[in-house]
Amino acid sequence: MTSAGEGPRVLLGVGGGIAAYKVCELLRRLTESGHRVRVIPTRDALRFVGEPTWAALSGEPVTTEVWSGVEEVPHVRLGQGADLVFVAPATANLLAKAAHGIADDLLTNTLLTARCPVVFAPAMHTEMWEHPATQANVETLRRRGSIVIEPAVGRLTGADSGRGRLPDPDALFDAARGVLARGGAAAARDLAGRHVVVSAGGTREPIDPVRFIGNRSSGMQGYALARTALARGARVTLVAANVTLPDPAGAEIVRTGSTREMRDAVLKAAADADAVVMAAAVADFRPADYEDVKIKKTPGAEPAPIHLVENPDILAELVRESRDVAGRVIVGFAAETHDVLENGRRKLARKGCDLLVVNQVGEHLAFGRPDNAAVILSADGAAVDVPRGSKEALSDVVWDLVAARMT
Question: Which residues are within 8 A (CB) of 77 and not within 5 positions of it... i.e. 6 or more apart?
C-alpha cells in the first residue's frame, strides 16, 4: 500500500534481455513523476545493466536474491506493499517462470506475493514470441488477471526485425501510469482476458494519385480508447486510418487508408473480439471513378464534377454479424455539428449498436484536441452525460459501460 506522504510504490522487474537498457529511461520517468520505485532485476539482467546503475537511478537498494535483508522478509513484503509490479523486458524465460509459479529469485518470488496489478512487457525475437509455448504462457498469465502487453514491431538484436521489440520508454510509462490511475487490482484488470477492437483516425477516399476526400479526425480519441483498454488488461487491436500518433504500447496496429480497407480490417479483427469500438471518422461516400493520373486544371474551363457513391456501412455490418455472438458489445461514435442528441438517437436506432458515443464537433471542438465531451446513449434508452475532460477520461467511461455489459 502507498504510505502517507509518498507516491505510488512501483516494483520494476527487469529481465535478462538486451532491451534492459531502455528500462533505465522508464525508471527515470517514473521517479521524476513522483513514484517510489524499487528495481528487482534477475541475475541475467545485471549482465546488461549493472546494480550500481539501478541503485543510483532509483535511490533504493537493489538485489536479485531472497537472502539479502532476510530480517525484512523481502520476498513477501515487497509484493504485499506494492501498488504496481511492472516487468520489462519480460523475456520468454521469465514469462514461463511466472506462468508456472517457479520462484527461484527475488523477482519471481515477488510475482507470487503481489496482490496489486502486474504488467509484463515482453521483449524477445519474433520466433520466440510466436512459439506455442510462449503464447500458452501469455494466455495463462492473462487468464489469471495479469496484463501482458503486445510487443512492438521493429528492429531487434542484430539485423533482425519483426514483432518482439520492447516498446519505447514513453509508451511504457504511459501504460504504467494508466494502470495506476485505475486504482486497485480488480478495477485495473476488468478487461483482462478480453479482446477488443478499436478503430481510429479518418478514412481517405482517393480522387487521383494526389487528391482525396477526407476529414479532420486526428485519431486521438481512438488512441485514448486503445491506451485505456490496455491499462485495464485487454488485448487490443487498433485499426488506424491515416494516423501519425505514437503507437500505444502493447496494441496490435493495423494500418488502413480508405473505408473499404478499414471495413476488411475491422471485420477480420472482430472475428474473435469481445467488443468493437468504432471511433474512426469513416467517410460515407467515395468518388465513383478514380483517375490514374493527376487531374490537370484546364484554364478557363469548368472542373469536371466528382460523382460520389455510398461506402460500406461498417458499424451496421458489425451489428448484423454480431447478433449471434453472445456477449459481444458494439459501440459506435456519432460526430454531430447540430441537433446533437436528436441526430444521435436517430443514428442509434438506425444502426442498432449497443452504445453510441455522441459528441459535438466543429472548428475548435473534438478534432485534434486533447479534450472531449459526449453523451453515451444505450440501446435500452439510458444516457450518460460525460462532461468535458481528457479523452482518456471519456474512454474510461466507455469501457466502464462496455465491461458492465460483458459481465
Answer: none
At 39, phi and psi to the nearest 5? Answer: -90, 130
Cα distances from 213 to residues 7, 240, 260, in angstroms, run: 48, 17, 14
Residue 4 reports pLDDT greater than 60: no
pLDDT of 365 reads 58
Is residue 368 domain-shared with residue 242, that is, in the same domain?
A: yes
247 is annotated as contributing to ligand binding:
no
Cell (9 digits) for 53: 546503475
Residue 353 inside a domain? The answer is yes
Does the annotation flag 351 for ligand binding? yes
pLDDT of residue 132: 94
Same domain, 260 and 348: yes
Has residue 1 been placed in a domain? no
- How high is the pLDDT of residue 152? 84
Rounded CA gap, 199 and 241, in Å? 8
Domain that holds residue 21: 9-188
| Catalytic residue annotation | 215
**296 labelled as ligand-binding?**
no
Cis amide leading into 89 (omega within 30): yes
> Residue 373's pLDDT is what?
86
Cβ neighbourhood burial of 52 (10 Å; 0-12, 13-18, 19+): exposed
C-alpha distances in Å from residue 47, one per residue of 24, 50, 59, 156, 291: 14, 7, 20, 18, 58
Q: Is 333 annotated as belonging to a binding site?
A: yes
* Residue 312 annotated in ligand binding: yes
- Enter the pTM of the model: 0.70
Rounded Cα–Cα distance for residues 95 and 155 (Å):
21
